[in-house]
Amino acid sequence: MATLSIQERKRLRQIGHALNPVVMLGGSGLTENVVEEILRALNDHELIKVKIAGEDREERAAIIAEIASTTGAEIVQTIGKIALLYKKAAKQNAKLSNLVRFAHAAK
């Protein structure tokens, strides 16, 4: 998987700033259903925020890394309990993709 350039990462962070988390992980951790929901959200929106509950910073980082490796998503940024994830959709949906909807904000 190609890593994002500094410019791409910056643009994705600008777009991600306006987003709310679409998936929230509770105490049960990363289940198959949660992975499916994250994959669905990534496929629809391409750029999503995921909120991970829990106070242990290392545990949250491990969960975020596991999400990225399981879904094939790129970690754009993590701030506290929020991770910004990006995965290019095979077929971009202009109505749902955050990249299309917020393209004007990054210019």
Word description of this protein:
The structure is a single chain. This protein has one domain (4-100): Translation Initiation Factor IF3, CATH 3.30.110.60. The radius of gyration is 13 Å and the shape is globular. It has helices at 6-17, 32-45, 57-71, 98-101, and strands spanning 21-25, 47-52, 74-79, 82-86. Helix 2 links the parallel strand 1 and strand 2 (47-52). The protein is of the alpha+beta class. Strands 1-2-4-3 form a 4-stranded mixed sheet, with helices on both faces.
Series of H and E elements: HEHEHEEH
CATH topology: Translation Initiation Factor IF3
Q: Sum up the overall morphology in one term.
A: globular
| Sequence stretches where pLDDT stays below 50 over 5 or more residues | none
Radius of gyration: 13 Å
Mean pLDDT: 89
Structural class by secondary-structure content: alpha+beta
The total beta strand count reads: 4
Report the major sheet: 4 strands, mixed
Terminal Cα separation, in Å? 26 Å
Which second-level CATH architecture applies?
A: 2-Layer Sandwich
Keywords: RNA-binding
Domain CRM: 2-98
GO molecular function, one term: RNA binding
Protein name: CRM domain-containing protein
